[in-house]
Design brief:
Oligomer: heterodimer
Helix content of chain A: over 70%
Number of domains of chain B: 1
Shape of chain A: globular
Helix content of chain B: 25-40%
Number of strands of chain B: 9
CATH architecture of chain B: 3-Layer(aba) Sandwich
Order of helices and strands of chain B: EHEEHEEHHHEHEHEE
Distance between the termini of chain A: 29 Å
Number of helices of chain B: 7
Number of domains of chain A: 1
CATH class of chain B: Alpha Beta
Strand content of chain A: under 5%
Largest sheet of chain A: none
Structural class of chain B: alpha/beta
Largest sheet of chain B: 6 strands, mixed
Strand content of chain B: 25-35%
Radius of gyration of chain B: 21 Å
Radius of gyration of chain A: 19 Å
Chain lengths: ~270, ~230
């Protein structure tokens, strides 16, 4: 127990060092994005274009298939899909992150959390590009945005960022040790896309079977807390509490992982 | 006070077999029960064994030893990149390692961007960077190549770039793996001059080399590593 506590403390100090010098990881994330702009002048906007395409095509078929209202489905799906894209890319990229940064890791002694903050931040910047689609959709289908967007969704975005980073740290360490985890996680994220309420509404499931798809699905709460206010609807009552508590939990687990494996992972490269 | 202190430092490299690197196979093994495969989990290479070392201001330590004797591993431990499996490491002072210089470069990015990145990684802010960046570019003599992606550089040019960056950092402790051979003869003279000045200014130098002549020239302390032990 004492060992676990001291490992958590080590991990916490690692975070602290990262946040004392945020320039390191934010500059590296900025460089990653600017590299994308260099490779093609549209840079991350290509991703946005592909998302727009998917939303356009699916919006013509899906509402009929599910007999949903077009005006409801399009913003519902578009917002959910942009958010999902952020979560899923951030998580899958973390499984290859430490392999990508191997050279850097063997050269410098910046904290471990800084490497993953770089990955989380660059994915967040890409999300901000895609968020333009959300704005366009909200304007086009202008419903009244619920005021809870300001005091629920915005803090939630920050909490989700921290959560994503914590999950990334755990997965990055795991997938360095077990090299086949990259594929397993990618498959898992694909599966989660279909079982999370993004292209379907939870109301189509009857009470009993919702269980693990909705109630125990953290991605559902992450999407819900941002999507509902944008659709002018109320957020699930416990959303903020769940998002907050899970963030704390993820953070502690990631601290433990950093503390326990920080010194070992160089041997796994 | 600037110092390096190693107490009973040992380091084991774990070598993993392919089976233990697979999550699926590890899981299956856990479920079915360990003995289904007779493969050994992993074995260790003992790279360093019970190293004791104490360096203070003015020390110039030369490390010699055959290939695979643990020279570079010891330097990596001293740089804080590798952590010992046993024992204590205490390092006080700003440290610049000249080991595997080309590691950590972004070859897609230009030389200039790499300078910025490396400087920020070394803990500078934009203000420090502004002061130093022109000097680095001048010293590297890379001319307009500095705006080209590093992947277009020759290995000599890459060395110039990294050396120019590292040599601008004020450091108390310098760790070197072999004396540098950077670029062509003109640049080499300049680089050697710079390096000698850096070493003069520094408080502690640790250098590993195969050349006894070199070590005799610049070092006032010597150790020889054989199979991870100091002899």
């Amino acid at each position: 127990m004492i060992r676990v506590l001291s490992e958590i403390k080590d991990g916490f100090n690692d975070y602290l060092t990262s946040f004392k010098n945020p320039l390191v990881w934010s500059y590296l994330a900025y460089m990653d994005i600017s590299m994308r702009y260099k490779r093609s002048s549209l840079g991350p906007w290509w991703v946005t274009i592909s998302i727009v395409l998917i939303v356009l095509v699916l919006s013509t078929i899906w509402p009929q298939l599910l007999s949903e209202d077009f005006d409801f489905f399009v913003p519902y799906f578009a917002i959910g899909y942009v958010l999902w894209f952020w979560f899923s890319n951030s998580i899958t990229e973390s499984t290859t992150a430490m392999i990508e940064f191997e050279g850097l890791f063997k050269q410098s002694n910046i904290p471990l959390s800084a490497y993953l903050l770089r990955v989380t931040l660059r994915n967040f910047i890409i999300f901000l590009h895609n968020a333009v689609l959300i704005i366009v959709i909200v304007v086009l289908f202008s419903k009244n945005i619920n005021e809870s967007f300001i005091f629920l969704s915005l803090p939630a975005i920050f909490l989700i960022f921290i959560s994503l980073n914590s999950i990334s740290i755990v997965l990055a360490i795991f997938s360095l040790r077990f090299r086949d985890l990259t594929n397993i996680i990618a498959t898992l994220m694909q599966l989660l896309f279909f079982v999370t309420p993004i292209i379907w509404h939870p109301s189509i499931l009857e009470g009993g079977r919702k269980g693990f798809l909705v109630d125990y699905n953290i991605f559902y709460y992450w999407i819900d807390i941002i999507r509902q206010p944008l659709l002018g609807l109320d957020v699930h009552v416990n959303s903020l509490a769940i998002v907050f508590l899970s963030t704390v939990l993820f953070l502690i687990i990631s601290c433990l992982f950093i503390g326990r494996f920080k010194k070992k992972i160089i041997f796994w490269m | 006070m600037i110092q390096i202190k190693l107490k009973n430092v040992s380091l084991n490299f774990p070598i993993y077999s392919e089976v233990t690197r697979s999550f699926k196979k590890t899981l299956v093994k856990k479920i079915i029960g360990g003995n289904i495969t007779q493969l050994k989990e992993h074995y260790h290479v003992e790279a360093l064994s019970k190293i004791n070392l104490q360096l203070k201001h003015g020390d110039r330590l030369g490390i010699s030893g055959p290939n695979g004797s643990g020279k570079t591993t010891l330097l990596r431990v001293l740089s804080g990149i590798l952590h010992p499996s046993d024992g204590e490491v205490k390092i006080n002072g700003v440290l610049v390692p000249f080991i595997d210089l080309h590691y950590g470069l972004n070859i897609e990015a230009s030389g200039l961007e790499n300078i910025k990145m490396r400087c920020i990684l070394l803990g500078m802010n934009f203000k420090d960077l502004d002061e130093i960046i022109e000097k680095i570019i001048d010293f590297s003599e890379l001319g307009k190549y500095i705006y080209m992606p590093v992947k277009t550089y020759s290995s000599g040019m890459i060395m110039r770039l990294v050396f120019s960056i590292l040599s601008m950092i004020k450091s108390d402790i310098i760790i070197m793996d072999e004396w540098l051979s950077v670029g062509d003869s003109d640049f080499l003279i300049k680089a050697n001059k710079r390096l000698n000045k850096m070493i003069d200014d520094s408080s502690i130098l640790v250098i590993a080399s195969h050349s006894n002549e070199l070590l005799d020239n610049i070092c006032n302390k010597r150790i020889e590593l054989v199979e991870g032990k100091i002899r």
